[in-house]
Design goal:
With 112 residues, the protein is an all-beta fold. It is built from no helices and nine strands.
Length: 112
C-alpha cells in the first residue's frame, strides 16, 4: 500500500498548447504501481484554463477548492468545492478558473 500527502508530490507546469496558469502532479500512477488508473491533482490559477481538447478516455473529476467552469460542446457546468464531473471519451472540453483563488481538482483517468 502507498500512503502519502498531496503536498509531498511536486506540481509541474502544464506546457500543452492552450494551457494557461495550469500545474499538475501525478499523485498515483505507473511509477507507484497503480494497475488501472492515474490520479492527478490540478491547480489552475485565477484567469487560467486548460486547453479545449478531447481524447479517447474518460475524466472523472472532484473539485477540492476554488471556483470555475467545465465547458463542453453542449454547455457549461459550474465547478465548486464538492462538485463531481464526468467528461466522456471523445467529448471536447476544458476547465476555466473564473474565481479569484486557485481552482484545485483531482482528475482520475485510465492508465494508458
Amino acid at each position: 500500500m502507498i500512503c502519502r500527502r498531496t503536498g509531498e508530490v511536486a506540481l509541474s507546469a502544464v506546457e500543452t498548447e492552450g494551457a494557461v496558469g495550469v500545474r499538475m502532479a501525478v499523485l498515483l500512477g505507473p511509477a507507484e504501481g497503480a494497475p488501472g488508473f492515474v490520479m492527478r491533482r490540478f491547480v489552475v490559477e485565477p484567469g487560467g484554463r486548460t486547453p479545449f481538447h478531447s481524447h479517447g478516455w474518460e475524466h472523472e473529476i472532484y473539485v477540492l477548492s476554488g471556483s470555475g467552469e467545465a465547458r463542453h460542446e453542449g454547455g457549461v457546468f459550474p465547478m465548486l468545492p464538492g462538485t463531481v464531473l464526468l467528461a466522456v471519451p471523445g467529448e471536447v472540453h476544458d476547465f476555466v478558473n473564473t474565481g479569484g483563488e486557485p481552482l484545485e481538482f483531482l482528475c482520475v483517468v485510465p492508465r494508458q
